[in-house]
User: Fold this.
Amino acid sequence: MAGASFILAINLFIAALFALAFFLVGVSNRADRAAPCFSLAYVFGMAYIATEFIIPLDDMPQLSYTAGFASFLGAVTAVTYGVARRYGRSLNPLAMGLFIVCAVLANWLGYLLPHDAVPRNLIYQAPYAVLQALAAWAILASRRRQPIDIGLIVLFLLSTLQFMSKPFAAILLGGSGDSAHAYIATTYALYSQSLGAMLQVATGLLMLTLLVRDMLVEVTARSETDPLSSVYNRRGFEERSAPLMQQSGLPAAIILADLDAFKSINDTHGHDTGDQVIIAFARLMRDSTPPTAIVGRLGGEEFAILLPEANIATARLLAETLRVGLAALQIPGLPIYARCTASFGVAERMVAESLTDLRRRADSALYNAKRAGRDRVIAALPDADAMPTHPLAGTSLARSA
Assistant:
């Protein structure tokens, strides 16, 4: 077996493994629209490798030659579509379809040129280079710059250069043979297939890593997000807040909010209406807070907002904005005259104060807001580190309870 034929056999095995791997990723995460494209790309790659073995034995090599080109073009196109989907870019299907038809037609006619001619090889390699450059552009345009993203950009650009350099590499390495049968025994064929195999493996591994990474990020986000309100749950809020609170010199403020008479809303108008109140209030908080704020639903009708680099005045102003905004909302399911209100406790972080202590002081202020009649904002005093005495403490009603 010639060296190039051996490399082709290895490429066939690698393509089958990657096709299966991306298929399994797609099955395990049906919302992933990129994995099926990558799996299809390696299926096309297997078809292309099969044609490389068939061409020397075919009585009509022009047909096999064009079929091999179309198969590999399908593989590169599927990769480009998958990358574009993963990075939120849109490709024009009509333009892509026209590009593919023109490329296949050009290669059908290009077969009539001498086998070793540079123009023929350029016609063959240029469409691949264009599509690889388009994949690199899709990542660059997304502005995602994590190591995997940068690695893929580099690989796609290297692949672009590889395809464009092949016609000239063929000349330097003694030619690509004067026929399809002679090609498989040339040094150029060994170089071309070996380099292609290395880039295929590197790109496949990075794309597989990219999908697995994004799956893990999505799973983590789901575990830290409250499904009803779409803000962080208690765990997510604490996980995001803890690193900020570990920076001893960073100022911060916290807002605790509690919906007033929420049980009454559920009992009177139903839990579906209560859910709408939660959703509306969470949306109001997301729309009203700065991008650096951490918004969470701590449980039931209680919410928290951590404001990095904010003081008590900023927190109080935001809390008042939320209080007035909630009272003005018309909640689906509530009578037109009914309005929801919330009570707020705010606190500014003291030097080296922990998140627990900061929340305790804000919770004390929130309790005071509830006791003072609800629908109001109260700021915590610096030394307010304990819950105030209940207004019924010591009375006969409290003792009987």
Summary: The chain has two domains: 3-223, 234-391. Residues 3-223 form a domain with the Rhopdopsin 7-helix transmembrane proteins fold (CATH 1.20.1070).
